[in-house]
Design a protein that fits this description.
Blueprint: H1 5-15, E1 20-25, E2 29-36, H2 44-55, E3 65-72
Parallel strand pairs: 2-3
Antiparallel strand pairs: 1-2
Length: about 80
């Protein structure tokens, strides 16, 4: 089943409240540019884990690759 950029955007924004997402990609390889207060004070690894937790085992499978760029913001 194909994955759309809009689906990824909606799932990230629903899974991490307060986050704004811009997602681009070709159906297998995606780039997500995110900003939101949930990332403030977290290490880069912890920030990426928040995003990975939204998709679970779909990463590397249904979602072949996801590049993530995060900007923490104030609440």
């Amino acid at each position: 089943m194909a994955v759309s950029t809009e689906e990824l955007k909606q799932r990230i924004e629903a899974g991490i409240p307060g986050t704004r997402a811009q997602v681009t990609g070709d159906g297998a390889h995606f780039e997500a540019v995110l900003e939101g207060p949930a990332f403030t004070g977290l290490s880069r690894i912890a920030q990426h884990k928040l995003v990975h937790d939204v998709f679970g085992t779909e990463l590397g499978d249904r979602i072949h690759a996801l590049s993530i760029k995060i900007t923490p913001t104030e609440a």
